[in-house]
Design a protein that fits this description.
The protein has 751 residues and is of the alpha/beta class. The protein is built from 19 helices and 40 strands. Helix 1 packs parallel to helix 2 and helix 4 crosses helix 16.
Length: 751
């Protein structure tokens, strides 16, 4: 198997240098726009050029994340960003938006396509579909088990990348709308507010139900038959990056998991560690009591008396280091900087491991009970451990190749490049050593470190004349100052808008029984969300030309759908809907009418063009989008558009379950009511997976008329509806009536 690539985060230039110094084979980073870590420092074009040139000097790689959804008005800025990436010769673009993929395929063929984990690739079919679209690498969903990863890794000529260390999301990445719907801060736009880390109430219980521990696969990485091992953390500083890279480099080099290096990481930043689901279904993934950095556990409080705490540390620590304690009833540990340490009745600077000490507590210290866990959360010694070297300023830079012509005559010397020429007049004699004279010209014009150029020099000196170095240097400076490299102006393909038809109604459900009292003659189509246990006989009762069959966004074992799809195709069903790339690989490329659901995001006209090239006849506007952008995409779309006017919002989908009692689970679908402050939700649990649903359905009301889509869709998915409820809601929606206790999400926001 090919050597693993150790891929490190670079939130800024220093983190990038630290990563390479401690053994990373590659780094991934974001520019100032279109990064899923918008709050990281991120890179300027000049910094990208510097780090990429340095990486290539080391035979290492730099990947740029453009892994957010792009709105129509941002396409010009996106082009400038891609121009920078192309100029800097980065080694790959990590993306979520298929519009970005379309632009790269059309205009930047040298840039490699890497599918972000935001694309929620979770099965072989999804990976194969992206390979066919030209992706060279796929970053898999974090939720996968080792056997699932091994299966996907058998795909030839496709690089597979997975996360091996760092923060986890409770939800499948790319399918989470929680932050967006609650606050307008879209995770799919790089602005997540992390509402999942909050305190929730479930019955009488209050806990951080969705606050994940940190992933740490440690030596398990050696089992992974994949190309790239990715460390999360673009919001982390160089110290953290250095420590984590150093730890995993040690493992990859066959030296094992070094305990002291692991302890160093925990003293810099760490929640409790978990292997997540790599080794199978895992219930030990949530830190229900506390959020944020915990540190290295070093002991328990033995006695607290007169502002002093006595304990026996398992690990040494020093004055001014940071300690944290778990205090029941608080969301975050209580932390303080150590100001006084007493050992054997004497003040000391350092507390030795396994020797009882007293530590002075600050005046604001809470009540600390005996047995309270103590963590070493910050260490001066660790901070001093990870030094690293950086190149000198301007030593490395991606430079434009230019052709320079130097012509030497007896009375003048002319230097030309990029349509510019400079002349130095004088009298030049025959050189005593012609070769040395030639080399001096070459040497003078190869002094380009303070420029943006990498010159290819051609010299015409037929008479073997000598030119003083001072003249050559001035000529070079004058020429290079005149040269101005013009960035290419790329014109995006302007879609030819479709001819719009009168709007028709669609209805979508995962339970056909709930439609029993609804007049389906008012609907152009009934969209049926398929499940592995779908009753095909119920579908056959509907007029075939009115049925569209929808594949779910998540299908961990897509093989379960292969026979169902084949049977339905054989029965003559030709209308299909997909919400994830995996659907492209299981449906025929020709002979079907294909629609993209709103989870297969098309938030700009370039994404719609890409969808059209993927044989889609229509797209669904994302409900987390703004009204302004929906209208812009709808107006430019060359294919039909669908506006969802009513839907129980799936805030996120997760492979995890808050019940956490697999042994006694009856495997039945259930709805658990939970609250966060004044907000309420339903946690739908089915097949060991959870969908968090807002208690307030999305409803456009009369705002739908502003979008002017070709289709209006009403959804009865995720929640349980009676036939009577469906009939009542449909009647109100089609007549434009108000429906209480609903929301308009981001229609009037700026996400």
């Amino acid at each position: 198997m090919k050597k693993h690539e150790l891929l490190a985060p670079a939130g800024d230039l220093d983190a990038g240098y630290a990563a390479f110094y401690y053994g990373a084979d590659a780094v991934y980073l974001g520019l100032k726009s279109f990064s899923a870590r918008a709050n990281a420092t991120n890179f300027t074009p000049e910094q990208l050029s510097e780090l990429t040139a340095y990486a290539h000097h080391l035979n290492k790689c730099v990947y740029v994340t453009i892994n957010t959804l792009i709105q129509e008005k941002e396409l010009d800025e996106l082009m400038r960003t891609l121009d920078v990436c192309n100029t800097c010769q980065v080694d790959g673009i990590i993306l979520q938006d298929i519009g970005v993929a379309h632009i790269i395929k059309e205009h930047y063929p040298n840039l490699k396509l890497h599918a972000s984990t935001q694309m929620a690739v979770h099965n072989v079919d999804g990976a194969l579909a992206l390979k066919k679209l030209g992706f060279t690498r796929v970053v898999l969903a974090r939720e996968l088990t080792l056997p699932e990863i091994e299966k996907i890794a058998t795909i030839k000529d496709l690089e597979i990348e997975i996360f091996v260390h760092g923060a986890l999301c409770y939800a499948y990445s790319g399918l989470c709308q929680f932050s967006s719907i609650e606050s307008g801060r879209s995770a799919n736009r790089g602005k997540c507010a992390y509402p999942c880390r909050a305190l929730f109430q479930w019955g009488e219980k209050k806990a951080h139900l969705f606050s994940m521990k940190d992933m740490a696969l440690q030596e398990h990485i050696l089992k992974l038959p994949i190309c790239s091992l990715k460390i999360e953390g673009r919001k982390k500083k160089d110290l953290y990056v250095a420590a984590v890279v150093d730890y995993y480099r040690h493992i990859l080099d066959g030296k094992g998991a070094d305990k002291s290096k692991a302890e160093n990481i925990k003293q810099i930043f760490s929640r409790p560690w978990t292997t997540f689901h790599l080794l199978g279904k895992n219930n030990d993934i949530i830190d229900t009591d506390f959020v944020g950095h915990r540190g290295l556990p070093i002991g328990q409080a033995e006695k607290v008396f007169k502002q002093y705490m006595t304990f026996t540390p398992k690990h040494s620590f020093s004055k001014y280091d940071g300690l944290q304690l778990d205090i029941p009833g608080t969301e975050k540990p209580f932390g303080f900087s150590v100001q006084e340490i007493i050992s054997n009745g004497r003040q000391v600077f350092e507390a030795k491991a396994h020797q009882k000490v007293q530590v002075q507590l600050p005046n604001n210290a809470p009540f600390i009970d005996k047995g309270t866990q103590i963590y070493l959360a910050s260490s001066g010694q660790v901070k001093a451990t990870y030094h690293y070297e950086k190149p000198k300023p301007n030593e490395f830079k991606i430079r434009y190749p230019i052709d320079v012509m130097v012509q030497i005559e007896t009375d003048k010397i002319t230097a030309s490049a990029c349509g510019q020429s400079v002349v130095s007049n004088g009298h030049f004699d025959v050189a005593q050593n012609p070769q040395k004279a030639h080399d001096s010209v070459l040497q003078a014009f190869l002094k380009y470190k303070d420029t943006d150029f990498k010159p290819n020099i051609k010299i015409e000196n037929n008479n073997g004349l000598f030119v003083p170095a001072s003249v050559l240097n001035q000529l070079r400076r004058d020429l290079y100052e005149r040269i101005e490299i013009k960035e290419k102006q790329t014109e995006l393909q302007n879609p030819k808008p479709r001819k719009k038809q009168p709007t028709k109604w669609l209805i979508k459900t995962d339970n056909l029984i709930c439609l029993n009292q609804t007049d389906l003659s008012t609907f152009h189509e009934v969209i049926v969300l398929l499940t592995p246990d779908i009753n095909i006989e119920q579908i056959k009762k509907l007029p075939k030309n009115k049925v569209r069959l929808a594949l779910p966004s998540i299908a961990r074992n897509s093989q379960n759908f292969h026979k169902i799809i084949k049977d339905l195709l054989n029965l003559g069903y030709r209308k299909w809907e997909i919400g994830n790339p995996w659907g492209l690989n299981v449906l025929p490329e020709k002979g079907i009418d294909l629609s993209f659901d709103n989870a297969f995001y098309t938030m700009n006209s370039q994404a719609v063009l890409m969808a059209q090239k993927m044989n889609a006849s229509r797209i669904t506007l994302p409900i987390e989008d703004t009204m302004e952008n929906m209208m812009a995409v709808n107006d430019k779309s060359p294919i039909s558009t669908v506006a969802v006017v009513y839907q129980d919002i799936p805030l996120f989908q997760s492979a995890n379950c808050i019940k956490n009692n697999c042994k006694h689970c009856q495997k039945q679908t259930c709805f658990i009511p939970i609250k966060k402050a004044t907000d309420s939700y339903w946690a739908k649990i089915k097949d060991c997976a959870l969908t968090l649903i807002s208690s307030k359905p999305f409803y456009m009301g009369k705002l739908r008329e502003q979008v002017q889509s070709d289709f209006y869709r009403i959804d009865f998915v995720h929640q349980h509806y009676t036939p009577e409820q469906v009939q009542t809601i449909v009647s109100k929606i089609q007549s434009g009536e108000n429906i209480p206790n609903t929301q308009i999400a981001n229609l009037k926001k700026n996400i």
